């Protein structure tokens, strides 16, 4: 339920006929169930009757709350207060106060508005949980970077260890493949002529007499 109060102080103001409407605060955040208060103040001089109307931007005219302050106030600061005890989610919105001076001269001015935001405890809890998750992620980033570096290093060392046995095995295979070729080359150096095996002797070096090919006669039993 909206409650509207009007009060006047004896603070002198400037020239006659001038007044400026001010609303405080401009923004208001509250939890569901809290009590909130909005203030509308204006300067007036020699006003016989002043009318103050509070309204919410999205409410139709029949649901607007109004207060009428009548009487005579000379050169003073006037104030109207709008209070909402036990605020609910449906009370959220922008509230405006309109001040109308009817006597001696008609003047009307509206405040800049007060924006009311109503949140639940669950909304605040969700916001806090999201913030905690973000903090946890930021704290874990250095550990994740270190873990990734160690994993990559282990992968590189494992690949290097796998390549070493493969290289030694290839060398042994190459040696085994070369042995039959060497034996064939040695056998090709021997010739069979008329039942005799002729083994060519190596070419003598300079200064030594040439040696004839050595003939080996096979013995058949």
UniProtKB/TrEMBL annotation:
The keyword Repeat does not apply. Residues 1-21, 163-185, 197-221 are annotated as: Disordered. It comes from the Eukaryota. One of its GO terms (biological process) is B cell receptor signaling pathway. This is Ig-like domain-containing protein. GO terms for cellular component: B cell receptor complex; external side of plasma membrane. It comes from Conger conger. Residues 1-16 have a biased composition (Low complexity). Residues 12-119 form the Ig-like domain. Residues 204-221 have a biased composition (Polar residues). Keywords: Immunoglobulin domain. InterPro entries: Ig-like_dom, Ig-like_dom_sf, Ig-like_fold, Ig_sub, Ig_sub2.
